[in-house]
């Protein structure tokens, strides 16, 4: 394997600047710089990231260059060094080359590629190393990637490390920043932001700061979000990890900007990336949601019928489901009913307040079921939006099995009314509601005094009258006061 690499390097060393630029451009590498920089870059490509396609490209460039040189000097092409071409001829017949041991002097990398290695197994295919990816943030639209996520590598054994980065903005990027509107005083909507996350390629990563983080832009330190205070004992305060806006400290010109990230090296690996983004507001996200996120009322109705459909395996049939028209976030009537498509419930929350809440403190959790409800999964319920305009005097509705709905009036507190009078025990002479029983005492008086439960028990006048009646009775002590209340009579309320 070393022999063909050496031959390939020799061919690259013979390339001119134009050849080197074509080779580097073919693999997406930078083509700028002096010739020795281009040669170094191309040799690194051959050494560490060479694939059959790259070998083929080197072959084409070399043959083209040598053919031109031969025609200019008048020499026939057959005088080309056979050693330089052996690798390419082997590549062309790579699929038919017989299996050979590693000691064979003429073996090359393309011929070995995919063959058995000492009987231990097949060589793995050339796989590009996966890159760290960051999750998309709804409030940030990426315009340019200034620096791909790059791992912060410690330079020594110290706990506090510094990692510098130097870059310059293009004139187009500078214009985008300068011409963008201001979200607030000194804060442009188009920004250069720094994002930091764990070095993990298994899935898109959320922003995560390393310990002891500090960011210096040119000659000034940039403010980094602090910790949320924790009111619960024993619970550590949390830190909101968001993109760090560097724009106000950068040179908006052709001058280079130097960014230095100070971080604590405590075993975990972090990567940083630089992006040119446009920051969105909650009002803009709401308008976008209204444009592309409204679910048609008929589709919502079909969803209701599906949820209320009798399950053949269930013995209980659901005849209806109640849905509140009050937002669980702010306890106010819904204006833009919204929920995530992944939510299993019909209950909605208000999109206006939900987006405003996540603009201040992004969590993207459904307030109804407490499950993730990211922006790209939000929908506006077209059926509930229609119901809100038709039902203004109720705060709750009930969906029926056929997809129809009916308002649920708020139950009034039970109170006294002609339709539901309070039962009064006593004679009809006082209020005339219920006749007293036909049982008189020896003096023609009722055996039970009037007890009117509708009157205020603290009325002083009634107490005086009762005392006078007690004084006029000389026959002896009256029996203990008791409500004469026929058996079987119940309250009307």
Automatic annotation (TrEMBL):
Pfam families in the record: PINIT, SAP, zf-MIZ
GO cellular component, one term: nuclear matrix
InterPro entries: PINIT, PINIT_sf, SAP_dom, SAP_dom_sf, Znf_MIZ, Znf_RING/FYVE/PHD
Biased composition (Acidic residues): 459-476
Predominant location category: nucleus
Reaction it catalyzes: S-ubiquitinyl-[E2 ubiquitin-conjugating enzyme]-L-cysteine + [acceptor protein]-L-lysine = [E2 ubiquitin-conjugating enzyme]-L-cysteine + N(6)-ubiquitinyl-[acceptor protein]-L-lysine
Species in which this protein is naturally found: Pelodiscus sinensis
E.C. designation(s): 2.3.2.27
Positions of region (Disordered): 68-91, 434-493
This protein's UniProt keywords: DNA-binding, Isopeptide bond, Metal-binding, Nucleus, Transcription, Transcription regulation, Transferase, Ubl conjugation, Ubl conjugation pathway, Zinc, Zinc-finger
Pathway noted in the entry: Protein modification; protein sumoylation
The SAP domain, residue ranges: 12-46
Top-level EC class as recorded in UniProt: transferase
Protein name (Swiss-Prot/TrEMBL): RING-type E3 ubiquitin transferase
Gene name for this UniProt entry: PIAS4
Origin organism lineage: Eukaryota, Metazoa, Chordata, Craniata, Vertebrata
């Amino acid at each position: 394997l070393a022999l063909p690499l050496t031959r390939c390097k020799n061919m690259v060393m013979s390339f001119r600047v134009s050849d080197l630029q074509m080779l580097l451009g073919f693999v997406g590498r930078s083509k700028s710089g002096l010739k020795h920089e281009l040669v170094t870059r191309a040799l690194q490509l051959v050494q560490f990231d060479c694939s059959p396609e790259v070998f083929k490209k080197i072959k084409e460039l070399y043959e083209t260059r040598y053919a031109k040189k031969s025609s200019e000097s008048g020499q026939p092409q057959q005088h080309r060094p056979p050693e330089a071409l052996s690798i390419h001829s082997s590549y062309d017949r790579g699929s038919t080359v017989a299996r050979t041991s590693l000691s064979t002097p003429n073996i090359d990398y393309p011929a070995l590629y995919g063959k058995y290695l000492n009987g231990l197994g097949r060589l793995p295919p050339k796989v590009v190393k996966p890159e760290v990816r960051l999750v998309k943030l709804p409030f940030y639209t990426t315009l340019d990637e200034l620096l791909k996520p790059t791992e912060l590598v410690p330079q020594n054994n110290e706990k506090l490390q510094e990692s510098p980065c130097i870059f310059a903005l293009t004139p187009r990027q500078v214009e985008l920043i300068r011409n963008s509107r201001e979200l607030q005083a000194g804060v442009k909507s188009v920004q250069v932001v720094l994002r930091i996350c764990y070095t993990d390629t298994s899935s898109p990563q959320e922003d995560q700061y390393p310990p002891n983080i500090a960011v210096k832009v040119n000659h000034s330190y940039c403010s980094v979000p602090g910790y949320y205070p924790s009111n619960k004992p024993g619970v550590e305060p949390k830190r909101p990890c968001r993109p760090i806006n560097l724009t106000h400290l950068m040179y908006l010109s052709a001058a280079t900007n130097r960014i230095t990230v100070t971080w604590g090296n405590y075993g975990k690996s972090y990567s940083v990336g630089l992006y040119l983004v446009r920051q969105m507001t909650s009002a803009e996200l709401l308008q976008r949601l209204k444009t592309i996120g409204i679910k048609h009322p008929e589709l919502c109705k079909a969803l209701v019928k599906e949820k209320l459909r009798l399950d053949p395996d269930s013995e209980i049939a659901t005849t209806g489901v109640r849905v509140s028209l009050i937002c669980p976030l702010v306890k106010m009537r819904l204006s833009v009913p919204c929920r995530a498509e992944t939510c299993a419930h019909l209950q909605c929350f208000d999109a206006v307040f939900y987006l405003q809440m996540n603009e201040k403190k992004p969590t993207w959790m459904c307030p109804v079921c407490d499950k993730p409800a990211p922006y790209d999964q939000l929908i506006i319920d077209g059926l509930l939006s229609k119901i809100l305009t038709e039902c203004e005097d109720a705060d709750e509705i009930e969906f029926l099995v056929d997809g129809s709905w009916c308002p649920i009036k708020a139950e009034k507190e039970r109170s006294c009314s002609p339709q539901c009078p309070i039962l009064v025990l006593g004679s009809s002479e006082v209020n005339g509601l219920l006749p007293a029983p036909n049982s008189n005492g020896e003096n023609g008086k009722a055996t039970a005094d009037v007890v009117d439960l509708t009157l205020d028990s603290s009325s002083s006048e009634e107490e005086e009258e009762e005392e006078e009646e007690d004084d006029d009775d000389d026959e002896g002590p009256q029996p203990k006061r008791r409500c004469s209340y026929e058996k079987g009579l119940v309250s009307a309320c």
